[in-house]
Specification:
Protein name: DUF4248 domain-containing protein
Organism: Bacteroides luti
Structural class: mainly alpha
Pfam family, one: DUF4248
Radius of gyration: 12 Å
Order of helices and strands: EHHHEH
Number of helices: 4
Low-confidence stretches: none
Number of domains: 1
Length: about 80
């Protein structure tokens, strides 16, 4: 079987990278807004990210934060 898409890897991602992976057909500001809404709208995810020292001003998600996001939102 031939794979046409790359496999998603848990690693550090910038907010822009991750937002664009989840919303590839949107502009960067739009993709960032949507991802922020999804995170803010999920209280369990927000609590877990808070425990992982997430701050909305950070520009990079750590691998542990990315794993939490993927656990709640699914792979992009």
């Amino acid at each position: 079987m031939i794979k046409t898409e790359e496999e998603f890897k848990i690693r550090a991602y910038t907010k822009v990278e991750l937002a664009c992976l989840y919303n590839p057909h949107m502009t960067i500001p739009g993709a960032l807004r949507i991802l922020a809404r999804w995170i803010a709208g999920n209280t369990q995810l927000t609590a877990e990210l808070c425990a992982l020292e997430y701050n909305h001003r950070n520009r990079i998600y750590t691998p542990r934060q990315v794993k939490a996001i993927v656990d709640y939102l699914g792979e992009p």
